[in-house]
Design brief:
single chain, mainly beta, Immunoglobulin-like, six-stranded antiparallel sheet, three-stranded antiparallel sheet, 1 helix, 9 strands, elongated
Length: about 180
């Protein structure tokens, strides 16, 4: 195709497109709203607490720490509680049971406590209770993970048989 024919063909196409664009009689607009509701939301996870090895002859408590991680939406007020576990009678009477042991035998139960570390003196500093008990960790969500330090302690001098002791499951709950 020659240069002259190409130019004429392109001009015809351009004229045709301009004709289509100007063929509309007018223009109207409509406004609309975009919306969504944002609800409070939280997630919780917890690391196992491993005390290592307990020696009944030690004169100081055996302590260790672990983390509970909470992520709540921005400005969501939340509380974290921890239940009594499988073998305790309350959150102030938590117990681990010897593997293969009998929970009716006092020599098969090892007492332990849980508390939290936080800014100031949180309610759970002396004993970390369950939701509804008042001795819980309370904070406000930031939208990012918040690591809460869980501290466990086993009092010295408990007269128990040697072996492996566990309390499973122990449940951490976030209330928001």
């Amino acid at each position: 195709m020659s240069m002259k024919k190409t130019a004429v063909a392109m001009a015809a196409v351009t004229w045709g497109l301009n004709s289509i664009a100007t063929a509309y009689a007018g223009q109207e607009t409509a406004e609309f709203e975009v919306r969504v509701g944002v609800s409070d939301a939280c997630e919780i996870s917890a690391d196992d607490l491993d005390f290592g090895t307990y020696n009944i002859l030690d004169i100081v408590p055996l302590t260790n720490t672990s983390n509970i991680t909470v992520k709540c939406s921005l400005l969501t007020v939340f509380s974290v509680g921890i239940d009594q576990g499988q073998h305790g009678s309350s959150t102030t009477d938590r117990k681990m049971l010897k593997t293969g042991g009998n929970d009716q035998n006092a020599n098969h139960l090892l007492d332990y406590t849980l508390n939290c570390v936080g800014v100031g003196v949180p309610a759970c500093a002396l004993n970390w209770g369950d939701i509804g008990e008042g001795s819980v960790f309370t904070s406000i969500g930031t939208g990012a993970d918040m690591d809460i330090v869980l501290t466990g302690s086993i009092a010295p001098g408990q007269n128990v048989e040697s072996g492996s002791y566990t309390d499973n499951p122990v449940t951490a709950t976030v209330d928001f």
